[in-house]
UniProtKB/TrEMBL annotation:
InterPro entries: CobQ/CobB/MinD/ParA_Nub-bd_dom, P-loop_NTPase. This is ATP-binding protein. Residues 14-159 form the CobQ/CobB/MinD/ParA nucleotide binding domain. The keyword Nucleus does not apply. The keyword Nucleotide-binding applies. Keywords: ATP-binding, Nucleotide-binding. Signal peptide: none annotated. One of its GO terms (molecular function) is ATP binding. Transmembrane segments: none annotated. It holds the Pfam family CbiA. It comes from Candidatus Alectryocaccomicrobium excrementavium.
Amino acid sequence: MTGRRIQAIIGHYGSGKTEVAMNLAVALARKEPVTLIDLDIVNPYFRSAEHPQVLLEHGVKLVKPEFANTSVDIPSLTADVDAAILDESRRVILDVGGDDAGARALGRFKPHFDRFGLSLLAVVNPYRPRSSTVEQILAMLAAMQDRARFPITGLVNNANVSHLTTANDVLYGREMLARVTRETGIPVVLECALEKARPLAPLKGAEFLPLTRYTKPEWMD
């Protein structure tokens, strides 16, 4: 699903990046060993590292920064991350910080990506303020590519308005990203939604990932 052994998921805050990363890891873990690396050193909320039990129950190994889930806000990238990337027996999903500044964390591992390859997937939700127009999405992608020091290889349509999302919302995201693809040449490789919002017609050339809301806040229960 979506390419190489090593895949990095990036996107602005509110794009649903962490939800996509967790769901992708769980889906892949049904078929092969998977490690999810929480590289979100920017946003202290909605991190993969906040859900170790969920990941463990689905057979996903979690590697997280030393200071994840503490009050210490220090970018800390441990040797465990290097070891996880170098382990060729496992698929690797990197949940990367929520903007271009967070994408800089990937630059530290560029020698590994040059060696093994990388699928760098940008999650886009056109219902968020900083990605609501094609121009904003293009600027976001350019900034994240520059910081990551690696080209974005695929787009992820995660158009949503939380639990109110319908198939029409997903189709709106599909239309927006088709325009981005025409401008950049970057294809949409993954489309995500709650099962109830899955469009009847699949998107040609892309896989569909039905989402489970693992990061849902308690007030939505």
